Amino acid sequence: MASVFISYRGADVAPAERLAQAVRDAGHAVFFAEWDIGVGDSIVARVEAGLQGASYLALCLSASGSSDWLNREWMSALSRQLAGKGVKVLPVFLTGRERPALLADIKCADMVSDWDCGLAALLRAIR
């Protein structure tokens, strides 16, 4: 069982939650902000803990672009990946197909064209 941090824009909460549930149903531990950050919690502390414990960060790419939070999450994970810290960024075309230039050469799971095939590809990448 792997630990997967789902990184998404607030505008994509519904499809991101569908993805989070599918990853959880496949037997993996999932950090999903809507589930894991409660009223009264420090958002920064909870996100930091989620990122530190993650083996994978599923970067949900959005038709509505990016956000500061989303960028900080994936950049933090990518920095750790490049430093050999045991985390891997997995880009997911969730509602859009635009990706950051730093991730241009990385194959994405395509949930836009075919949800089931994209999910299967993502789950194969999560070991």
Oligomerization status of the protein chains: single chain
Between the first and last Cα atoms, what is the distance in angstroms? Answer: 7 Å
Mean pLDDT: 93
The rounded Rg comes to 13 Å
Strands across the major sheet, in which order? Answer: 2-1-3-4-5
Question: Could you list the spans in which at least 5 consecutive residues all have pLDDT below 50?
Answer: none
The helicity comes to 40-55%
Give the amount of beta strand, in percent: 15-25%
Summarize the biggest pleated sheet.
5 strands, parallel
Task: Give me the count of strands.
Answer: 5
Shape verdict = globular
Count of DSSP H/I helices:
5
Give the SSE string.
EHEHHEHEEH
Describe what this molecule looks like in 3D.
There is one protein chain. With 127 residues, this protein is α/β, with parallel strands linked by helices. The protein is 43% helix and 17% strand. It has helices at residues 13-25, 33-36, 43-53, 68-82, 115-125; strands at 3-7, 29-31, 56-61, 88-93, 109-110. It has a 5-stranded parallel β-sheet, with helices on both faces. The longest helix is centred in the middle third of the chain and has 15 residues, at 68-82. The radius of gyration is 13 Å and the shape is globular. It starts with a strand and ends with a helix.
